[in-house]
């Protein structure tokens, strides 16, 4: 009998269970999180509604919610598994393996403005309903050098720069979803921004800042590639 099944969880919830503090939905900017306070498997059903909201590239890489569960989708009136997107409405239904108490990322979103979160968390044989939270979408200027828009200045941005070196602007190249290139072309302005912010994130934290010698090698490689592209 799988703890990842809502049918199973509902049946267990009917049995007597020790009193638990209420789990909750929490947020970290555009990331929806689940906070649990007891050891065990967890399942969630959550509706997210907001202006210009869209799921990012699926669940964050470190997610522990890896099993789609059947959920009664409020947007379609039918049972759907996993994630369902309907315009500015998103419904997510997932379960986890056994978790220790703590806060875990569930899903990352892109968009603008705010989004309202409402749903339930099944934990320890009980369903906790009517849980709410608010996601903050957009509103933050991308870090200079974060050309991909993923919040980090790293190899993704370096690849975008090299692949589009000397390209005329506008138009903005495909995939250039963060800090925008300046007219009339992608050149030393973007290179300087990348080198100045290499290894940083939107939150100001370092994401593996290279040693000065390593950064010098990156610069040499960039300049060499730039020279080749101009030939």
Largest sheet: 7 strands, antiparallel
Helix content: 10-25%
Question: Roughly how many Å apart are the termini?
Answer: 65 Å
Number of helices: 4
Kindly estimate the percentage of residues that lie in beta strands according to DSSP.
25-35%
| Global shape | elongated
- Structural class, judged by helices and strands? alpha+beta
Query: What is the residue-averaged pLDDT?
Result: 77
Number of strands: 11
Q: Tell me the radius of gyration.
A: 22 Å
Unreliable stretches: 1-20, 205-214
Series of secondary-structure elements, N-terminal to C-terminal: HEEEEEEEEEEEHHH
Short summary:
Helix content is 20%, strand content 34%. It has 231 residues and is of the alpha+beta class.
Give an overview of the whole structure.
- This protein has 231 residues and is α+β, with helices and mostly antiparallel strands.
- The protein is 20% helix and 34% strand.
- The chain is built from four helices and eleven strands, in the order αβββββββββββααα.
- It has helices spanning 6-13, 155-163, 188-197, 212-230; strands spanning 24-28, 31-36, 42-50, 53-55, 65-68, 70-72, 79-86, 89-96, 102-111, 113-123, 126-137.
- The strands form two sheets. Strands 3, 5, 6, 7, 8, 10 and 11 form a seven-stranded antiparallel β-sheet that branches. Strands 1-2-9-4 form a four-stranded antiparallel β-sheet, with no helix packed on it.
- Strand 1 and strand 2 form a beta hairpin.
- The longest helix has 19 residues, at 212-230.
- The protein is elongated.
- It starts with 5 loop residues before the first helix and ends with a helix.
- Mean pLDDT is 77; it is low at 1-20 and 205-214.
């Amino acid at each position: 009998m799988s703890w990842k099944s809502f049918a199973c969880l509902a049946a267990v919830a009917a049995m007597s269970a020790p009193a638990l503090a209420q789990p909750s939905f929490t947020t970290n900017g555009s990331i929806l999180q689940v906070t649990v306070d007891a050891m065990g498997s967890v399942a969630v059903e959550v509706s997210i509604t907001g202006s210009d909201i869209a799921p990012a590239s699926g669940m964050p890489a470190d997610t522990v919610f890896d099993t789609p569960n059947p959920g009664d989708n409020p947007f379609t009136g039918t049972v759907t598994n996993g994630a369902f997107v309907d315009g500015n409405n998103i419904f997510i239904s997932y379960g986890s393996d056994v978790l220790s108490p703590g806060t875990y990322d569930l899903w990352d979103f892109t968009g603008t403005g705010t989004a309202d979160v409402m749903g339930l968390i099944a934990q320890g044989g009980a369903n906790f309903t009517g849980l709410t939270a608010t996601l903050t979408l957009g509103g933050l200027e991308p870090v200079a050098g974060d050309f991909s828009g993923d919040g980090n200045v790293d190899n993704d941005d370096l690849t975008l720069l090299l692949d589009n070196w000397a390209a005329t602007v506008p138009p903005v190249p495909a995939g250039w979803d963060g800090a925008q290139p300046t007219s009339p072309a992608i050149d030393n302005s973007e290179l300087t921004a990348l080198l100045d912010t290499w290894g940083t994130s939107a939150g100001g934290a370092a994401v593996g800042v290279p040693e000065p010698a390593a950064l010098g090698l990156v610069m040499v490689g960039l300049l060499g590639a730039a020279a080749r592209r101009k030939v």
